[in-house]
Design brief:
Blueprint (H helix, E strand, L loop, with lengths): L1 H10 L12 H4 L11 E11 L2 E17 L2 E12 L1 H4 L4 E9 L5 E10 L2 E10 L5 E8 L5 E8 L8 H6 L12 E3 L2 E2 L4 E2 L1 E12 L6 E13 L2 E11 L6 E8 L2 E11 L8 E2 L1
Antiparallel strand pairs: 1-2, 1-16, 2-3, 3-4, 4-5, 5-6, 6-7, 7-8, 9-12, 10-11, 12-13, 13-14, 13-17, 14-15, 15-16
Length: about 280
C-alpha cells in the first residue's frame, strides 16, 4: 500500500521534450505551459475486493505559486486518505508537499505517511553545484529514528511530486507507441530506476457523468530485482492541461483505480472533451 501514494502522485501525468538551458537549475526545469496557480484536482479511489470494486477514499492535489525561502516558487500538495471501508484492512493517511522554482526544478520535498500501523517522514533538499544535482535526504522512521544521507548525481533527479509538474509540460504529439521517457525519482532512501512507455490514444468516459475525454495513455514502469513491473497505467487529457482522468494501479495485493471527480482553476480550455 505504501506504493499506492507513489502511484497516485505519479499517476496524475503526461509529456513533452523541451529545450534545455545552460545552468544546472534550468537544466533540471522546464517551461510551464500546463497549469496555473489555484488549480484544484480531486479523485475518487477504488479498490478491487473479492472481484467487487469498492470506493475506499479520495485524493486531492492543489498547485499554487507562492514563495520559498524568499524566492518565487511553485507549491504542489497531494493529500490521500482512505475511508472506513479501507481502514478495516489498511489505514492510509498521506500528505506530500513539493516546492519547485519557477522553472519547475525541485527545491524541497516532504512526505508524511500513515500507512498501516506506522507513521514515517521523508524529506529531500535539492541543490545544483557545478552543473550537478545534489540531494540531502532525511528519513524519520516509525520508531522516531532520524537517518541522514547525501547523494550526488551528474543528471537531474526528481521527487514524486516535482516529476508530476514537469511531466505535465511534455508533449506526446511526436511520440510513437512504445517510446520511453526516463523518470529518475528519489525518496529518502534510494533512487528508482523507472520510466514511462507511451501506449497511444484512447477515449474515456468518467462513470456517473456525461464527460468523455480524448486521452493519451502511458504506463509507468519500474525495474526491480532484474525485472520490469508495470505499476500504473494512466489516461491524461489530450490537450494543453494534461490532466489525468483515470489511473489503473497494479499492486502486489490487488488492483486499484482512481477517477477524476472534479477540476477547477485549469489554465487552458479542455479541448480534449468529446461532446
Amino acid at each position: 500500500m505504501r506504493r499506492i501514494v507513489l502511484l497516485i502522485s505519479l499517476s496524475l501525468i503526461t509529456f513533452q521534450l523541451s529545450m534545455i538551458t545552460a545552468t544546472a537549475q534550468s537544466k533540471c526545469g522546464i517551461e510551464n505551459i500546463a497549469f496555473q496557480s489555484g488549480e484544484r484536482l480531486t479523485y475518487d479511489l477504488y479498490f478491487n475486493w473479492k472481484f467487487v470494486w469498492v470506493k475506499v477514499g479520495k485524493a486531492t492535489m492543489n498547485t499554487d505559486l507562492t514563495t520559498y525561502q524568499g524566492q518565487r516558487a511553485w507549491k504542489a500538495s497531494l493529500v490521500t486518505g482512505g475511508n472506513s471501508k479501507l481502514d478495516k484492512f489498511f489505514t492510509m493517511r498521506d500528505t506530500l508537499l513539493s516546492y519547485c522554482n519557477t522553472e519547475l526544478a525541485p527545491i524541497y520535498f516532504r512526505k508524511g505517511a500513515r500507512e498501516g500501523k506506522r507513521y514515517y517522514v521523508d524529506e529531500l533538499w535539492f541543490t545544483y553545484p557545478n552543473n550537478t544535482c545534489k540531494l540531502k535526504m532525511h528519513h524519520i522512521s516509525s520508531h522516531g529514528q532520524h537517518m541522514w544521507k547525501d547523494a550526488h548525481y551528474k543528471d537531474c533527479i526528481y521527487d514524486m511530486m516535482s516529476i508530476f509538474l514537469r511531466a505535465r509540460n511534455f508533449n506526446a504529439g511526436s511520440m510513437k507507441k512504445g517510446d520511453k521517457i526516463a523518470m529518475p525519482i528519489s525518496d529518502a532512501s534510494k533512487l528508482s530506476h523507472s520510466w514511462l512507455t507511451y501506449r497511444g490514444k484512447e477515449n474515456f468516459k468518467i462513470d456517473g457523468t456525461k464527460e468523455k475525454f480524448r486521452c493519451l495513455v502511458f504506463s509507468f514502469i519500474e525495474r526491480e530485482n532484474g525485472e520490469n513491473h508495470e505499476l500504473i497505467r494512466f489516461y491524461v487529457t489530450d490537450d494543453q492541461n494534461h490532466i489525468p482522468v483515470r489511473l489503473d494501479m497494479f499492486l502486489s495485493f490487488g488492483s486499484a483505480k482512481a477517477y477524476l471527480n472534479s477540476y477547477k482553476g485549469v489554465r487552458s480550455p479542455m479541448t480534449s472533451k468529446i461532446k
